[in-house]
Every structure is written in structure tokens, then in C-alpha cells.
Aminotransferase class I/II-fold pyridoxal phosphate-dependent enzyme (Dyadobacter sandarakinus), 386 residues
Amino acid sequence: MAVLTGIRSKLPDVGTTIFTSMSRLAEEHGAINLAQGFPEFDCTPELQGLLEKYMRMGRNQYAPMAGVMVLREAIAEKNLAAGNRDYHPETEITITSGATEALYAAVSTIVRPGDEVILFEPAYDSYAPAIVTNGGVPVYITLPPQYEYVDWQQVEAAITSRTKAIMINTPHNPTGKVWDRADLEQLGTLAEKHNLLVISDEVYEHIIFDGRRHVSASAIASLAERTFVCGSFGKTFHITGWKQGYCLAPAELTAEFRKIHQFIVFSVFTPVQFALAEYLKEPAHYQALSAFYERKRDLFYNAIELIGFVMKPSEGSFFQNVCYENLSDEDDVVLAQRLTSESGVASIPVSAFYKQPTHYRTLRFCFAKHDETLLKAAERLGKVRW
Ligand code: PMP
Ligand code: GLN
């Protein structure tokens, strides 16, 4: 029997996420699921073996609240080798339950009621709800899905006396845009001038194409001192279901971050942390990833090129956006549903990443799939009657 609690929703505008609903629809119709972003392939037997090894070794009780030290050390080393800030494993690195928890805990650490946080939309779906549940106010800089550059004057104009932080994401979900060093330096200049904190979502750091290099906020001196860098092993090692992430931040920020983290999860899955620490010792395990996905991006792009979409190759992440304005006027949610049920290919309508209704007529396809799956999906898309 339902109990009347009189509860007032903290997130009245939020329903089940678009990723869940499109995956459900794909399953219902037996469609190829290029919607929710997850790899179709498994992690390596080596990583699976390491997980088993540490479970059998009895590493099965609570990990330290901040994460097992060998993993924190491995992350520190990897980050330093990439030319980024030197984070101290003891006081500046925390292992989290995926990047989702890192992002939520970072927001929760800094946002008080009435604080404004600047977001660039299209924005990943967890950012705004994290701000709102903490009493904050998301302030949006709206960019088209195929944007070329950020107008930093527009960003500065959005800063008020209540602005607490800016959240960024590079490589970007859903647009596949990669910010270069100049963008991050501009951000650093603004953040310093207005004394803002930064939350930088870098979960696709190892999926970046055409010779581009990931520039972490932790590589820019003016940013590193005021940024929570949120990362994930889910994308890097094909283990989205293991929910292993981390947060890098200077000691003063990390001390406060851990006060929140310890009451969300306390600590995360222990044996995986030991397994990842050992696996990270071999840089080839993540350095090969960009080439692996670049080939898949090309395969999918070439296979859908003649359909008539307006598109440009994704710069990073495992998403390709396509604009169908030359083919149809249909609303993107309606079209994504129709393509799933009638043509057997599920995608994500990019309007789901915007706060206000938009008409960019753009769909996001995930190409983290077997070649046969991508080719089959492209063939089906080629037969759609627009
Ligand atoms: N940020 C972005 C941009 C993402 O795409 C995702 C998940 N795909 C996350 C954060 C969440 O990462 P995790 O699965 O490690 O929680
Ligand atoms: N980040 C994944 C995506 O963008 C989905 C994660 C989720 O389902 N919450 O598709």
C-alpha cells in the first residue's frame, strides 16, 4: 500500500535517464543499441585474471576510505608521466564509485544553497541534478552540438557574485569535441580572476583522435590549484559495470571532498582496486585505446557518410553525432524512438542534453561496438525512409 509521506521532490523535472529509457526501448524492439554509451566488448582476460587473483588472495574487506594506496600511487605516477600536476597519493587522490560519484561528491563539497554553477550544454545528465540537490543553481552556456569554439566573453558575462564553479568535460559527451590548451588557459584566466572552482570531467581522456592530445585541467597551473579532476576506468578498460573512478584535487579540496565521499559510499570495491593498480603498470593497456576507437569511428563514419547527414568526425569519446536536418524535420526524440522501433537502431536524441527544448535535429550514436554491429546498424540506417 502506498504511504503518503508528503515528500516534495528535490528533482521534480527529472525522470528516468534517457540512457535507461532508450536502452529499454532497444531491448523491447530487439534493436541494435547504439544509444547508451558502453562497450559491446569485454575487458581483457588479463584484467579479469587480476580481479580473480586479488579476490582469491582475500582482498575482500573494506578498502581504506580514500582507496587502496597502490592504486592511488599508480594514478599519481600515470598523471605525472602525462605532464600533469604531481598529486600526492596520500592527500590528493580519492578512489570513487565511478566518475558519477566523483562528480556528485565534488559538487556536494562546494555548492551551498543559492550558489551558481556554470555548465556548458549539451551537458552530461548528472551535472545539473547534482547541483540542484545541493541547493545550487545551474547557469547554462548553450552551444550547438557541432560547435567550433567557446565564446569566453559570453562565459565571463555569465559570472555573477554568486558563481561558485564551472563544470567542464573534455573530450566531450555527447558532441565528441576536444578542448585544446588555449581553451583551458582561457578558463584558467577566468577562474583565477573571479576566484572560481572548477570540476573537470575527463572520463574520455584516453579516447581522442587524429593526433590530438588530451589536455587535462591538471596540466594548467592556474587551473590545477582550483580543480577537481574526475576520471573513470570504465571507459578506459571496457569495465563500465565495475564503477571505478577517481578524483584528483589539491589537499585542501580533497580533505573536504573526502568528508562527503565517506558518507556516500565510505569506500569502493576492494579487489578491483588492487587489480587496476597492477594493470596500470603497463601503459600500453591504455595508450592503444585511441587508435582502437579511431578505427571504429572511421568505420562507422564511412559507412553512414552517403546517407545525407550533416556531420563531422568525432574528435574524441566514443560518440558520433549526426544532424539530419537535410533529411527530416522530425523532433529528435520522436525520430530516435521511430528509428528504434521501425528500423532497429537505437540512438540518443541530443536534445536530452539541453535544459530548454532545442531543434538541432541531432542524434548521438555510440560506436563502442563490434565492427559487424556498426556495419549492420549503418546498413539499417541506409534503408530508413525519411
Ligand atoms: N561523465 C561522462 C561525460 C560520461 O559519459 C559518463 C558515463 N558514460 C560519466 C561521467 C560517468 O562515469 P562512470 O560510469 O565512471 O560513473
Ligand atoms: N555515460 C553513458 C552515456 O552517455 C551512460 C551512463 C548511464 O547510463 N548513466 O551514454
About this structure: The chain has 15 helices and twelve strands. The longest helix spans residues 289-304. The chain has two domains: 18-37+287-381, 45-281. Residues 37, 98-100, 124, 169, 173, 201, 203, 232, 234, 240, 243, 245 surround 4'-deoxy-4'-aminopyridoxal-5'-phosphate (ligand 1) (CB under 6 Å).
